[in-house]
Design brief:
Distance between the termini: 37 Å
Order of helices and strands: EEEHH
Strand order of the largest sheet: 1-2-3
Shape: elongated
Largest sheet: 3 strands, antiparallel
Oligomer: single chain
């Protein structure tokens, strides 16, 4: 169900609108007890979360490059040390 804006602490601006909210509720039973459960959804929170995910995704190539540079492109005493470092780096989980 659409609730609309919950609070109007400051007027909307060109870059920041008043966030509309939606809610849903129902009765649930947990461990033999009956409860009323409610969920509130904020569109503004979704937008912030989406922007954050996009920034993190855009930064991934740099993070991988830095990680690779630190672990594999150093100077090694012998070929075996370099190969061990490359193997350790290749086993790291992907983002």
């Amino acid at each position: 169900m659409e609730v609309g804006p919950v609070a109007k602490t400051r007027p909307p601006t060109r870059n920041r609108s008043v966030a509309p909210y939606r809610e849903a509720g129902q009765r649930v039973t947990l461990y033999g007890q009956s409860y009323r459960a409610g969920v509130v959804h904020s569109s503004a929170h979704d937008q912030r979360r989406q922007k954050r995910m996009e920034r993190e995704r855009a930064a991934e190539p740099e993070v991988l490059k830095d990680s690779f540079s630190k672990q594999c492109l150093g100077e090694y005493a012998c070929r075996e040390d370099a190969e061990q470092s490359a193997t350790r780096w290749s086993r790291q989980p992907c983002f």
